[in-house]
């Protein structure tokens, strides 16, 4: 069973490394949930929906803990019932495999907020 993207380590971009091109990131994007899209070949963007503000805040905190653990941080927009996320590698001002790993980890976390 091939390892899923979420199981990959978050390895930061090397100094001077080029951002991924659309051909290079296509395979990673295909492994992410439907919430994600690439914007301007620069960053990943997703919007996750929740039943209320409290659930959206809890997810925001989960993402924040993940970001601190991996030292790889998204921009997060918290609203009532919705969390918007943007993910890219500041060091190379573009996309790196680590951004897709983080997005896959966020999808995994979101799966725990089922519509029960
Ligand atoms: C100043 C701090 O070390 C840098 O911002 C680290 C931590 N978090 C980061 N997060 C993201 N998304 N990209 C980075 O290059 C990055 N580098």
Describe this structure in words.
This protein is α+β, with helices and mostly antiparallel strands and 116 residues long. It is globular and about 40 Å long. A hairpin with a 3-residue loop joins β1 and β2. It is built from 3 helices and 4 strands; from the N terminus they run αββαββα. The chain has a domain at 38-116: Transcriptional coactivator/pterin dehydratase (Gyrase A, domain 2). The relative contact order is 0.26. Strands 1-2-4-3 form a 4-stranded antiparallel β-sheet, with helices on one face. α2 (53-70) packs antiparallel against α3. Helix content is 34%, strand content 19%. It binds the ligand C[C@H](O)[C@H](O)[C@H]1CNC2=NC(N)=NC(=O)C2=N1. Ligand H2B binds next to loops.
Rg over CA atoms, rounded to whole Å, is 14 Å
Averaging pLDDT over every residue, what do you get? 94
Rough outline? globular
CATH architecture of the domain at 38-116: 2-Layer Sandwich
Q: Percent range for helical residues?
A: 25-40%
Q: Which assembly state applies to the chains in this document?
A: single chain
Q: Regions with pLDDT < 50 over 5+ consecutive residues?
A: none
Succession of helices and strands: HEEHEEH
CATH class of the domain at 38-116: Alpha Beta
* Termini Cα gap: 29 Å
- Tally of helical segments: 3
How would a textbook summarize the main sheet? 4 strands, antiparallel
Q: Please state the structural category.
A: alpha+beta
Ligands bound to this protein structure: the ligand C[C@H](O)[C@H](O)[C@H]1CNC2=NC(N)=NC(=O)C2=N1
Spatial ordering of strands, largest sheet: 1-2-4-3
CATH level 4 superfamily of the domain at 38-116? Transcriptional coactivator/pterin dehydratase
Under CATH, the topology of the domain at 38-116 can be stated as: Gyrase A, domain 2
What's the number of extended β-strand segments? 4
Pfam families: Pterin_4a (PF01329)
EC number: 4.2.1.96
Region (Disordered): 1-21
Family: Belongs to the pterin-4-alpha-carbinolamine dehydratase family.
